[in-house]
């Protein structure tokens, strides 16, 4: 039977990846000495904890996984290392990371991250079965995670070590790199002008321009599927692909845009302190950052060009 096209967009997992009786390809190996070619082979063949499109998280030993994908960039591992060194947040330890270049141009490359396997339950799977007290404890841990991240101030916007910005607040192709605050503000103010012209998100002519004075470490994908509850009741935060230095308001605004588990999002937002004006300003431009199909893409760029032309005409 032919595979449904929708299955390409649905994450899958191999049950043997969580079976303690499974023999994994790198059991007993010193991971720091394993040649890259063997790591690549193990990443492709070991049981997958998660597989979606080109992204694969394979359990290669009792204690380790390898994440591989065309979308895995060096900045993901760098963010994880920084957070591990400067906070008490629970996240997988990174042992190795590297990129293998393909033969079909600049987009044909695959990134690899060798890191700890975290034993536990995805919050997506266990949230509905938790008691009120257990949920309150989890929300408290999430708020503490965000506060610790926001204690890390960084000099300029974007992923750690450079590269394109990805996630909710950027186009499906990413954005940047941004050399400084001015370039970052310009990117968002262009979109604000488009939002005003289209009436997106309730933005109006008097909505002030974006001014970002502070950049902090943000995860930008804190959602139940990226939180693992271990047997001791501790939360582990995984999937740091969108992480980087962004304004503090980006984390709560991203939570508000998450469609998964809205009651979880609401509970966390109720316990976070943030500026409501900045929050509404950012939410207001979301409609011009995401689009469906070629028509909407063309419409977006037409609006962007119109905004730029109009700005020159008014000088």
TrEMBL record:
UniProt domain Aminoglycoside phosphotransferase: residue ranges: 62-270
Protein origin, superkingdom: Eukaryota
Keyword Kinase appears in the UniProt entry: yes
Pfam families registered for this protein in UniProt: APH (PF01636)
PANTHER family linked: AMINOGLYCOSIDE PHOSPHOTRANSFERASE DOMAIN-CONTAINING PROTEIN, AMINOGLYCOSIDE PHOSPHOTRANSFERASE-RELATED-RELATED
Keywords attached to this entry: Kinase, Transferase
GO molecular function, one term: kinase activity
CDD domains with a match to the protein in the record: APH_ChoK_like
ATP-binding found in the keyword field: no
Name of this protein: Kinase-like domain-containing protein
């Amino acid at each position: 039977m032919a595979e449904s096209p929708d299955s390409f967009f649905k994450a899958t997992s191999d049950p043997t990846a969580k079976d303690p009786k499974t023999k994994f390809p790198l059991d007993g190996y010193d991971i720091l000495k394993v040649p890259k070619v063997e790591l690549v082979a193990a990443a492709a063949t070991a049981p997958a904890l998660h597989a979606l499109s080109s992204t694969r998280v394979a359990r290669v030993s009792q204690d380790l996984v390898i994440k591989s994908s065309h979308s895995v960039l060096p900045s993901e591992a760098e963010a994880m290392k920084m957070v591990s060194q400067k906070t008490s947040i629970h996240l997988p330890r990174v042992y190795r990371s590297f990129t293998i270049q393909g033969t079909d141009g600049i987009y044909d490359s695959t990134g690899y991250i060798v890191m700890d396997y975290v034993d536990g339950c995805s919050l997506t799977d266990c949230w509905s079965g938790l008691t009120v007290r257990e949920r309150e404890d989890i929300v408290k841990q999430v708020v503490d995670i965000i506060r610790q991240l926001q204690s890390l101030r960084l000099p300029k916007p974007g992923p750690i070590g450079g590269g394109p910005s990805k996630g909710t607040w950027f186009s499906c192709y990413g954005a940047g790199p941004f050399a400084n605050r001015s370039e970052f503000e310009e990117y968002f103010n262009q979109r604000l002008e488009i939002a005003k012209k289209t009436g997106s998100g309730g933005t109006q002519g008097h909505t002030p321009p974006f001014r970002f004075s502070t950049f902090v470490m943000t995860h930008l994908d804190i959602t139940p599927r990226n939180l693992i509850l271990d047997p001791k009741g501790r939360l582990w935060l995984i999937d740091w692909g969108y992480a980087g230095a962004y304004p503090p308001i980006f984390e709560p605004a991203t939570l508000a845009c998450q469609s998964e588990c809205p009651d979880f999002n609401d509970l966390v937002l109720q316990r976070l302190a943030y500026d409501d004006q900045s929050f509404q300003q950012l939410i207001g431009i979301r409609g011009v950052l995401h689009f469906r199909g070629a028509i909407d893409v063309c419409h977006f760029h037409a609006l962007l060009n119109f905004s730029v032309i109009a700005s020159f005409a008014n000088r």
